[in-house]
Amino acid sequence: MITFGVLGPLAVHRDGAPVELPAAMLRRLLAVLLSRANQPISADRLADTLWDGSPPATARKTLQVYVHRLRTALGDPARVAHGPGGYRITATAAELDSLAFADLLARARAARRDGDDAGAADLFAQALRLWRAEPYADLPADALLADEVQRLSEEHLRAREESLGLRLDLGGHAEAGSELAALAAAHPFRESLLALLMLAHYRAGRRADALEVFRAARARLADELGIDAGAALRRLHAAVLRDDPRLDRVAVSDLDTLTEAAAAAPAGTVPAQLPADTPVFSGRAAELEKLAGLLPGDRGLTTVVISAISGTAGVGKTTLAVHWAHRIADRFPDGQLYLNLRGFDPDGTAMGPAEAVRSLLDAFAVPPERIPATLDGSLGLYRSLLAGKRVLVVLDNVRDAEHVRPLLPGSPTCLVLVTSRNQLPALVATEGARPLALGLLSDAEARELLARRIGPDRVAAEPDAVEQIVRLCGGLPLALAIVAARAAISADVPLRELADRLRAEGAGLDAFTGWDAATDVRAVFSWSYRALSTPAARMFRLLGLQPGPDLAGPAAASLAGVPLAAAQAALAELDRAHLVTEHVPGRYQCHDLLHRYAAELAESAEPEAERHAALGRLLDHYLHTARQADRRLEAVRQPLAIDPPADGTLVDDPGDATAAVAWFTAEHACLVAAVNRAAAAGWDLRAWQLSWQLTTYLDRRGHWSDLITVLTAALGATARLGDRPAQAHLHRHVARTQVRLGRHDDALASFHAALEQYRAVDDHAGQGHTHHNLGVALEMQGRTEQALHHTEQALALYTTAGYLPGQARALNGIGWYRALAGDHRAALDHCGRALALFGELGDRNGQAHTLDSLGYAHAQLGDHKQAIACYEQTLALYRDFGDRFGEAETNAHLGDSHRAVGDPAAAASYWTRALEIFEELGHAEAATVREKLRGGVTAAR
After folding, report:
1. Does residue 336 share a domain with residue 245?
2. Which are the contacts of 297, defined by CB distance < 8 A and separation ≥ 6?
3. What does the pLDDT average to over 152-165?
4. Cys-Cys link to 670, which of 82, 431, 548, 692 (CB 3.0-4.6 A)?
């Protein structure tokens, strides 16, 4: 087991023994990766950090060397991975002390919320014992590490403070006092520490010392900062002055309740402010169950329970909160408060704390003359009124944590429901709020919503129309409610007609226009959009231009023409605002209706030139990164000459074939959509060049229908460009793909079209490619003699062109067809020459195909052990560069060879794997392998 220590000097241990990293750059690289453990860091950002903002021209290559050396030193190559987002080190809380520290703190805080103070104290102590010194103490504080050191140090201080406060609650004021005194001296302006020190002195019978702490702090704040002590510290001081008896028993978390007794509300005043429940509420069973787990019950809670319900506009946050509040209202006999804080209202006038607390005090009928003049006084009175009472508080439409924090009661007998379009991580971190992210409705829940609103019989009568409505609304409750209302108003109109209208209007949001701002999807979305920062708002608009189902950070950075860090910050803000979702790490998607809204905003707010430039940068990102990735998969293919990327485009370079396949797999749908968008938008050159970069990946992974799609779009583009060489390439690849799909007649026509174009431009190598591919197609139809003829023509053309990779492929093809004709010795000769030439060229794909041919020839000669050896090498190569079809075929051949040597169990194992892949690809060869398996099982019996 390997462990990492960063809470002090950097330390690495493997199985308890220290791992030496003598090179300073390796230690720095490891430290930076650990500072963002389990998160990718781009190569560019790593290089900037390692070389202090001035990386050399060779930085990427040198970084690869350092990563390799680090992997070797750690003895675990998979520990530092490379993917589309960059380099990432993986670690668990059992392996990295900073993660263990965070985990222990979270468990400690949870234990305290559940009333287990002793358990919480033990967990805090375990967390604090992990600290050996300042984080990363032996490393220079570059930008990335400095931020992490500051974060960890602040969390350490906060943990010490919480731990000491807990010791005070457990009666340990004497021993906590000296530690608090030293900590407060080191942080003289941290008033929360000063408050704990005052409380410790008071409970130890040192009232004068407690008052002196306040006097010295107040003087220091005035002299050095020109400010007075904060309200919380002043309230504690007043409580000490009057010997408030609550000081001996109040929990540290409830110090805010120590305001001087104020006039209570008139006896019997019980507010009941909840809005009306939705009579046709449906779905959300899982969310309601999670909310039910928040009920205080008799668990001895020491802090108020808070649930933060967040989600995108129109997802039903308020509806859920109000519905559940009505279900549990009887559990809170002292009142139910509801306040719309207007955090996302269209006029931008969010309710401030003064107006909010006044409304809450009015709910308890507090006479105006008894309400304190200051905001702090009013908030203190509000908390005092709720102290010890069972009150439910619903704070709706909250902008952020600061918006709601002053209004949280201090009594553990209360429960608070908060709704917001933003995630509220600060409220979760500092107040222990239980987050509940409200997602879209499932198809079943959407159908249930329609049935509740327009009647189950009507829904059951037109299931196809209902399915179409559900799909077009995308699970968004507001959209479904608008459509249901239209259906209810027009009860005599068939749902099929309504669905047809939605589909016809589907390009925009007019189909989801309601009767007022609250029921108009466009208006509701606008309230979230207007709350964004300028960079995030621009990013959201530009997302309306992206053609794919989602996009990664580098693609978003290119779209906006900003550095990756700026793009990630904007996307994080959009994620917090629930305008996008980070559905997998580093990839963001937008609800269909939000995407349409973003497109409308881009059309109206972004100049045409900027929209054009943004789409061009995005296409350049895909084109140039795909070119780099394709080179990792097919190093010997002649690369296309393409123009440099536009300024502001981010280009990634996957480090190896595995990373290239991972990038293509993640971007698959986006790349196909990008080709189609480029062709439709007049970016013809980019359309055909991008399609060309996708051919190797799509072919090897068996995505032949998608390959036909992008090649067809590219053919249209090259026709408009009048580019005959490009058309020749594309016709040939269309033909090869048609062969894969079993469309042999279509393939022959496409091959001849390619030959015609290649001859017109006198391209001998291109003609050789086409004859070679024709040979493969003819052989698949059993026309071996013709296949051999075309392949021999290919060899002659390749020789004339001086194209060595083609000569190697043709030699292998001739050997293969000789083997099929029964001349196995000639096959071994031709294929052996091909394998040697592929080895000189470093063409591993060619080596795989040739080893397969050699395996077949050896098998036909009865040398099955040699055949198995060739096939095993073939299989390893196909697996390495992700050729799924080749992997399936080779597994089938290995099954045949193992059956021939009398090992039916091994044969069945290989055939089973072949069948799985063929079925996954939807290939007809699956039936053949399935029959072999049946025969093999029967023989084994």
Report:
1. no
2. none
3. 90
4. 548
| Domain residue limits at 812 | 808-882
Q: Are 469 and 483 in contact (CB under 8 A)?
A: yes
| 3 state SS of 543 | helix
513/423 same-domain check: no
pLDDT in the model for residue 938 = 40
**Short-list 673, 677, 709, 659, CA closest to 882:** 659
pLDDT confidence of 593, banded at 50, 70, 90?
confident
Q: Check pLDDT > 90 for residue 628.
A: yes
Q: Are strands 17-18 and 80-83 parallel, antiparallel or unpaired?
A: unpaired
Q: Residue 751: enclosing H or E segment and its boundaries?
A: helix 744-760
Distances (CA, A) of 227 to 185, 217, 219, 224, 635: 19, 11, 9, 8, 67
Radius of gyration of the chain (CA): 35
pTM higher than the cut 0.70: no
The yes-or-no verdict on residue 261 having pLDDT over 50 is: no
Average the pLDDT over each of 221-230, 291-300, 352-361, 380-389 and give the range with the smallest value: 291-300
- Rounded to whole angstroms, the Cα distance separating 210 from 129 reads 29
pLDDT digits (tens, 9 = 90+) for 329-384: 888 888 899 988 877 765 556 778 887 888 888 888 887 667 777 778 788 888 88
Q: Are residues 76 and 143 in the same domain?
A: yes
Stronger pLDDT, 312 or 96, i.e. the higher one: 96
Paired strand residues for 4: 12, 96
3-class secondary-structure state, position 404 = helix
CA distance 526 to 378: 34
> 920 and 939, same structural domain?
yes
> Which of 521, 553, 575 is where one domain is finished?
521
Q: What CATH number is given to the structural domain containing 209?
A: 1.25.40.10
Q: Which residues contact 352 (CB under 8 A, 6 or more apart)?
A: none
Give ∠ CA 729-731-735 in degrees, rounded to 5.
Answer: 115
Give the closest residue to 150 by CA, choosing from 109, 568, 142: 142
Give residue 169's Cα distance to chain centre: 41
- Percent of all residues in the chain with a pLDDT value above 90, rounded to a whole number: 36
Total domains, the chain? 6
Q: Is the pLDDT of residue 541 over 80?
A: yes
Q: What is the DSSP string of 455-520?
A: -HHHHHH-HHHHHHHHHHHTT-HHHHHHHHHHHHHTTTS-HHHHHHHHHHTTTSSGGG--SSGGG-
d(CA 425, CA 573): 12
CA 671, 677, 678, 679 torsion-angle sign: positive
Report yes or no: 177 and 164 within 8 Å, Cβ to Cβ. no
DSSP string, 91-121: --TTTBHHHHHHHHHHHHHHHHHTT-HHHHH
Residues 129 and 195 in one domain: no
Q: What is the pLDDT of residue 513?
A: 58
What pLDDT sits at residue 790?
94
Give the domain-ending residue among 386, 415, 436.
Answer: 436
Which of 396, 391, 436 lies closest to 415 in space, CA to CA? Answer: 391
What's the pLDDT tens digit per position in 854-899? 999 999 999 999 999 999 999 999 988 788 888 999 999 999 999 9
For the ranges 190-204, 304-318, 620-634, which has the lowest average pLDDT? 304-318
Residue 529: inside a domain, yes or no? no
Average pLDDT over residues 746-760: 92
Q: Which residues pair with 393 in a beta bridge?
A: 337, 416
Whether the CB-CB separation of 687 and 713 falls below 8 Å is answered with yes
CA–CA separation, 941 vs 928, rounded Å? 20
Distances in whole angstroms, Cα of residue 88 to Cα of each of 40, 168, 180, 295: 4, 42, 39, 40
Measured distance between the N- and C-terminal CA atoms of the chain, rounded to whole angstroms:
45
How far apart CA 251 and CA 236 sit, in angstroms, is 13
The structure tokens 């497109």 sit at: 599
